[in-house]
From TrEMBL:
The chain crosses the membrane at residues 26-48, 126-147, 159-180, 186-219. Residues 22-222 form the Ion transport domain. Residues 256-281 are annotated as: Disordered. This is Putative potassium voltage-gated channel subfamily C member 1. It comes from Stichopus japonicus (Sea cucumber). One of its GO terms (cellular component) is voltage-gated potassium channel complex.
Length: 281
């Protein structure tokens, strides 16, 4: 929002006479509240992190720190009264890093998790696609450059002054976008353009089914996991009564064991007393 004209204000630096464009004050206040929240979250995560050294080298922490630094630098400049615009573009660029915080939602959204797993599983196919596209762009840009150079007349307009300019045209043509800012104007260049478009369609169509199959596989697996019944947590309801019951059962078993042992000892004693008269006789 701060890049839109309705949310910007202009003032002149009295020392240099330079016109400085800044966002409205309420946007700075809203950003301060958000950055304070993220800073507090960062401090709490650091306090409860078991490995302090590894905490600062994780990608999530680096993104949070880089996203919070521009606000504090702006706040220090405002408090010190420094209206210099040096480094403002770089700090504004660092604010783009805040967009990557959306990847934190991956742990809560199954769709993002499926997308990440699909890209990981399809790494070889994506690399193959990039290699094929690179070769096609290099060959097509070279061919269209020489085709336009050979077949055109001296007074004809030529959009391809060099081969690197043809890279952009080849990418746009192979991806079937077709902006039309640079086009071949000779019959030989048009033939090269038609062949480039066909090759681009075939190049994109080859690895895409593999990526789609991987996405369907992980998506089906994620949906099946969501439909599984969740495990119920065992809650100790009436734990004191359960302990009393267990102790009562233990006491009763010990008493019954003791009574059985005493009965067996009494029987053995009676047998020995019966045998004594026989031996004396």
């Amino acid at each position: 929002m701060e890049t839109a004209d309705p949310f910007q204000t202009n003032h002149t630096n009295p020392d240099t006479g330079e016109i400085i464009t800044e966002p409205l004050p309420f946007l700075f206040a809203i950003e301060g509240v958000c950055v304070a929240f993220f800073t507090l979250e960062l401090i709490v995560r650091f306090a409860f992190c078991p490995d302090k050294c590894r905490f600062f080298i994780t990608m999530e922490t680096i993104i949070d720190i880089v996203a919070c630094v521009p606000f504090y630098v702006d706040a220090i400049k405002k408090l010190s009264g420094n209206d210099s615009t040096a480094g403002n573009d770089f700090l504004s660029f660092l604010r783009i890093v805040r967009v990557f915080r959306i990847f934190k939602l991956a742990r809560h959204l199954s769709g993002l998790q499926v997308l990440v797993h699909t890209l990981r599983a399809s790494a070889k196919e994506l690399l193959l696609l990039i290699i094929f596209m690179g070769l096609g762009v290099l060959i097509s840009s070279s061919l269209v450059y020489y085709a336009e150079r050979w077949a055109s007349q001296p007074d004809d307009r030529n959009d391809f002054d060099n081969i690197p300019v043809g890279f952009w045209w080849a990418v746009v043509t192979m991806t079937t976008v077709g902006y039309g800012d640079r086009v071949p104007r000779t019959w030989l260049g048009m033939i090269v353009g038609a062949v480039t478009a066909i090759i681009g369609v075939l190049t994109l169509a080859l690895p895409v089914p593999v990526i789609v199959n991987n996405f369907a596989l992980y998506y089906t697996h994620a949906q099946a996991r969501q439909k599984l019944p969740k495990k119920r947590k065992r809650v100790l309801v009436g734990a004191a009564d359960a302990l009393k019951t267990q102790s009562a059962q233990f006491m009763s078993s010990s008493i019954s064991g003791y009574s059985t042992q005493s009965t067996n000892e009494g029987d053995n004693a009676s047998i020995h007393s019966d045998e004594l008269p026989l031996r004396t006789g």
